Amino acid sequence: MKTKWFSGTLPRLRRSAGALTRDCRGLAAIEFALIVPLMLVLFFGTVEFSSGVAVDRKVTLVARTLSDLTSQSAMPMTDGYLQNIFTASIAILAPYTATPTTATLSEIYIDSTKVAKIQWSESATVGSGATQATLTASSRNAGDVVTTLVPPDLLVKQTYVILSEVSYLYKPAVGYVMGKSGIKLSDVSYTRPRQVTCVIYNNVPNSSCPTP
Length: 212
Description:
This protein is an alpha+beta fold. The chain has one domain. 40% of the residues lie in helices and 21% in strands. It has helices at residues 2-22, 27-71, 79-93, 175-178, and strands at 101-110, 116-125, 134-136, 159-170, 183-191.
C-alpha cells in the first residue's frame, strides 16, 4: 500500500515541479523591483548633474556680465550704480534661486614694474527672496598685491583691469546623488575699462587716473 502511494505521488511531484519551472507569471514584476532602484538613481543623478552644469554655466555668465558692465562705465560709479550691477545676477541665474550668490568687483592697477595692486573692491550678496543685491565689505583691500591673480597676458604696465569673482552654492533637490551639503561653484572674469583709462568708484582712483 505504501509503495503504491509513493509510486503515485512521485510523478505528481515531478509534474508540479516542472510546471513551476515553466511558470513565468510575476517574472516582469520581480525584474522591475530589482531594476527600479538603479533606474531612479540614474534618473535623479542625470537631472541633478544637468542642473549643476546649467548653474555652473550661469555662474560664468554672471562673472562675465559683472566685469563687462563695470568696464563700460564712463562716469564715476556710486553705491547705487554698483548695486544695480550686482543685482543683474538675479536675472541671469533665473530660474534658479540667486540666494547663495556672493560676488566681488575689484579694480586692479598694474604699475611700471608689473606689480598688480587693488585700487578699490566691493562685494555683494543676494538675500532670500530679495529683488536687489546687498552691498557688503570686500575681503580685498586697497593696496593688496594681487599680481599672482592676474593672467600673465594681462600684466601690461600702467594699465587697469576689472576683476569680478562669483561664488555660488548649488544645492541639489535630491541629495542622495550629489550630496545634501551642496557643491560650491565659482568663476572669475577680467575686463579692461572700455571708455576710460580707469573706472572710478567713491573717488578712487582720482579723476586723473594716475599711472605712477
